[in-house]
Amino acid sequence: ILKNNLGMADAGVAETLLRRIEKADGGVDSLEVASSLGVDHQVVVGAVKSLQALGDLISAEQRSSKRWELSEEGTEIAEQGSHEARVFGSIPLDGLAQSELMKLSFGKIGFSKAMSNKWIRLDKAHEGGPRIFRTVDSIQDQVREKLVLVQKGSSSQLEEKDRNELKKRKLLSEVTVKSYWITKGSSFSTTITKQETELTPDMIANGSWKEKKFKPYNFEAMGVAPDCGHLHPLMKVRTQFRQIFLEMGFTEMPTNNFIESSFWNFDSLFQPQQHPARDAHDTFFLSDPALAHEFPQDYLERVKKVHSEGGFGSQGYKYDWKIEEAQKNILRTHTTAVSARMLYKLAQQKFTPVKYFSIDRVFRNETLDATHLAEFHQIEGVVADYGLTLGDLIGILHQFFTKLGITKLRFKPAYNPYTEPSMEVFSYHEGLQKWVEVGNSGVFRPEMLLPMGLPEDVSVIAWGLSLERPTMIKYGINNIRELVGHKVNLQMVYDSPMCRLES
Amino acid sequence: MPTVGVKRDLLFKALGKTYTDEEFDELCFEFGLELDEITSEREIISREQGDSKASGASDVILYKIDVPANRYDLLCLEGLVRGLQVFKNKLEAPRYRRVSPVSGEPQKLFITKETAAVRPHAVAAVLRNITFTQERYDSFIELQDKLHQNICRKRSLVAIGTHDLDTISGPFTYTAKPPGDISFKPLNQTKEYTATQLMSLYKTDSHLKHYLHIIEDKPVYPIIYDSNGVVLSMPPIINGDHSKITLKTKNVFVECTATDLTKAKIVLDMMVTMFSEYCSQPFTVEEAEVVYPDGKTCKYPELAYRKEKLSSEFINQKVGINESTEKIAQLLTKMCLRSQATGVGDEIEVEIPPTRSDVIHACDIMEDAAMAYGFNNVPHTTPRTYTVANQFPLNKLTELLRQDLAAAGFTEALNFALCSEEDVADKLGKKISETRAVHISNPKTAEFQVARTTLLPGLLKTIASNRKMPLPLKLFEISDVVLKDETKDVGARNSRRFCAVYYNKSPGFEVIHGLLDRTMELLEVKSARVDGYHIQAAEDSTFFPGRCAEIFARGKSVGRLGVLHPDVINRFELTMPCSALEMDIEPFLGHTAETTLTHDVPMQEVIEHKFPTQDESLQAPSSRPTSTKTAFGDVSTAAGLKSLNDFLADKSYIEGFAASQADMAMFDAIPSAPCSTFCHLMRWYNHIKSFQRERASLPSAKSQFVLPATTSDASDDDIDLFGSDDEAESAEADRIKEQRLAEYAAKKSKKPALVAKSSILLDVKPWDDETNMAELEQCVRSVSMDGLLWGQSKLVPVGYGIKKLQIGCVVEDEKVGTDLLEEAITAFEDYVQSVDVAAFNKI
């Protein structure tokens, strides 16, 4: 374990360092330790850092000091002697031709210095060219001695005059070194306790955790992501909407029929056959199976009549209603087609009040953009009871939207072929500082309900909205393709928070 | 929703008041309009065509106002102002009057019979002594365009032509001619063209090309001439240049040609009510006479005022307010529906003007009262409707399963229900014809060719777009696929599927297999060959050979799992091995004590509410005879059906070699579609069903196969489902019946209101271990009676390899008894040895 904290080789340094600290009064300097141990200063610094990580074993204070160091030339001199000494050394007893000396690398520099030291002389008149002879038997190479002192870290023994001269000769330079002043820490000890990373079953069993030191955690780092699956954000919002309806006592409608006949999708809702929503531009029609074959015959006749001639107190649309148009199979454009089926079935029994809801897919053959897809989820709520009023619809919408965290509502008159009155629901968006449309609502028309056979004094109120829009707002998604379909980034799914629909 | 653009300052001038944008927005909101955008011509051009084109364009502020799709009276400045002024009590709604021309004869428009082939209707009117200004003229043209786009359904239902009456002379003729025979100078052109030339000329016209299809393929084109042969218009394409309206025009001839007369009248009323304001006699319109091919004449515009009477109580109740009759009359009057209390109780007489064609029912009047009252002033109330919420069992199962699958480490994907044929077929190594996919006839792109028949392609595409994510990828989806199903009214049904994929450097079949095991654990299905689930090797072109297994649960195949075929992996642009699982989850729905809802509607109506429809007697022949007794026995019993099935084994029809009324009568006698055990009967039934629409035209029957209901049955035919021709049995049946009637009477006297129900668990034992239990179950389930609902079933081993069918049902005590049930089931003597009641519980 120690190996993990301190390099093997450095472990010895750390221990030596601790012993030095123990003996020293007032502390030691890392540089001195390094020089006395004969190791690089960085090794000592590493040991200091490692010991610091173990707790309050030592305390280290950074300080900076100036120090003399040999230049490259200085180092050469310290090893091989000064140039003048080397000149002296290279001259044999019978002298050396000056031209020969000058061929040596140190010849030219060393010659003049040796001359001024009077170690050598020059015989210019010597036959065969100027020749150099020794003048003394031996010399003392003081320059080298001084440099060796500096090299050993004992520059303080030199006089300032000498140091400046050597500096002038570019043999020495003064550098600033950073070192540590190391003293005992509050829990100083000369032995290094191994630092544990984790609590182990063994430690718990034998109680050794009590003596162990544990490596501190880095609380800045992130944890490991749990290995789990994730639910899709849109489905999480769907779950919440289901929950809200169930809390309000609404029964879920069976909407697992994407294919619907135009009859149930449009005609039964008193949506005329020339209505633009029934265009191929807006609705997906089927080529196979192209037509629906079975309809409750009597009801179909009543629907035909109310469209083409009126009745049930209505003028009707007065056009030639065609079964062929009603038979056409489509991908349902709204879940209200299922509501129509449910209300029709309800009318076939003795009427009892109901509250229904559904959240399921609907399909529109629309032009696609950032907020429109060919399919989306419609949320729908329906209440059928005797004597329901527009005030009831407004009241229930307030209750519903309050559960979504939306309390500021207002209602705009609107048009819808199968509801009258029809109201668009607006809520005040604090962020946008304006009213935004959040849903549609209305009271189903008698022309839709009475042909089904519902009692005349029964009213049916309903509202609808899309699931995608509140989800996009909730999760801050601007492009619907980033939410639904195969192009979604799974990271978004992984990262999405849970859905709490409160303000 | 149509959008009308009006110049702000012009609007405010007409309203006699200047509003801030916010104030006007607020007014619109109250009135059911929406101030959609505040812009200018320059802004629009610069946005659509760039700044350079916009220089020099007008800076006048435009309001773009959204108008409800049924309020044609608000599609122009004139109508908007009139509506708002009346709403603000600043103006009394004008009264529109049709007048005869000062100078004798009205303008006449003769319709010839040739128009019947292409566009049979026409109406007309005259705006006399009108004064146009540039603004009025623009608005006049704009309104025609708005009407064309909306109520006229892009001119297919109605097309409007307006003409300077002083340039033409009546009487006018509306006829239809072959395109080669029509020649005239169309609006804003310099020379004459034949209709054929015009059609090719306008092929490239960005505006007109959209209307060509309406008449293009017709042998004759509609055309209107004046008495000198001058062409007024070739509806619904273009007007003649000769009669075009200018700012100087004083008298306007308006004609509307149509395929829908009701809409033509509305459109004409709109045109003349809006612009008669600028006539020298405001709000008067000069009549025109339309002469039909048969000589009948009609005067237009109709400008009909309709009167409705309703009570203020009705409005108060529907809206949830409490206002006096007078106050409500005032509210309605604000909405251009002139109203007054009649003094008879709380009765109000409401006059619906010709501009309000949207008012077709008392509920429309009620809405107007609510709007005038202010939706946002209506007090909030809470319905007292007491209900207990139920979840749709399939969705409940789905929700629970989703949670646990995510907990099992799989991430939920959400893919489209629509996809390309290639996705569900070619890419999976299948043929599209094998898929039972429903096909879309008008997809805009290949992405919407079919509804998906499998969830697998969606998941594989999700992986393909997430290849950068760390492996393994573990995905699932629980959602509906759509399959063709002839037994459904629409010929298709949804099927709820669960699909999961594992994508990694190794196929991980064991991971997917483990997920199946976990899923079954969650569904409480144990691993067992007979009563639980097991998998067994299967061949499937989607999977790698030898690496696919079929999943069986309680003896039924519910899905497949395996390692995907490398070709499939490549076709979805994937690179790693992948294993997958897809199965139906509907077979795992548990029992519910509640009545569960379905979207299947009863095709036979149970009418409890009588309607005052006079044609009920006419419908009687098509309604089913009450008798189920036929020459083959009682076809509401299995025995009767069996005998009929045997008869049809080598015959196509009941009588002779063509469908006849004999088939129809027999078809009607059978209470519901027969089960597939009676394959001959089923084949005949479906065949005869296809004749339903032409049933009246079928030849009559030579002999009587369906026997009339006996009088003794009439009083209580709901329990005589198993009546028999056999006298001894019928005596027994009578005895049972009497006994039961006595029981009913006793029960009814105790609990008159409650419908007593019981839950019964039946043990149905086969003859031997070779009896096909699936068919046996089908037979049992084919037993249908009023008040009987079959529930879940399972096979329980009884020894020596024999299994008995244990099946639950819920019955209404008054209608169905165990003896009846047993009798009906033992009738399937080929399959059933005995029937015992294993459990009987009152609900």
Any key phrases for this structure?
heterodimer; A: about 500 residues; alpha+beta; seven-stranded mixed sheet; three-stranded antiparallel sheet; about 25% strand; elongated; B: about 850 residues; eleven-stranded mixed sheet; EC 6.1.1.20 (chain B); aa-tRNA-synth_II/BPL/LPL (chain B); magnesium (chain B)
Structure overview:
The complex is a heterodimer of chains A (503) and B (843). Chain A has helices spanning 2-5, 8-23, 30-37, 41-53, 72-80, 83-90, 98-102, 107-116, 142-151, 160-168, 201-206, 233-247, 262-265, 297-308, 323-327, 336-348, 390-403, 446-452, 468-475, 490-495, and strands spanning 28-29, 58-70, 96-97, 120-123, 131-134, 172-184, 195-196, 213-214, 251-252, 259-261, 286-288, 329-331, 354-363, 375-386, 409-416, 419-429, 434-444, 458-466. By secondary structure, chain A is of the alpha+beta class. In chain A, helix 3 (30-37) crosses helix 4 and helix 5 crosses helix 9 (142-151). The model of chain B is unreliable at 609-625 and 711-728 (pLDDT under 50). In chain B, 29% of the residues lie in helices and 25% in strands. The two termini of chain B are 52 Å apart. Chain B is built from 24 helices and 35 strands. The chains are: A alpha+beta (503), B alpha+beta (843). At the A-B interface, helix 12, strand 9, strand 10, strand 11 and helix 14 of A face helix 2, helix 9, helix 11, helix 12 and strand 20 of B. Strand 11 (286-288) of chain A pairs antiparallel with strand 22 of chain B, so a sheet runs across the interface. Chain A: GO terms for molecular function: ATP binding; metal ion binding; phenylalanine-tRNA ligase activity; tRNA binding. Chain A: Its EC number is 6.1.1.20. Chain A: Belongs to the class-II aminoacyl-tRNA synthetase family. Phe-tRNA synthetase alpha subunit type 2 subfamily.
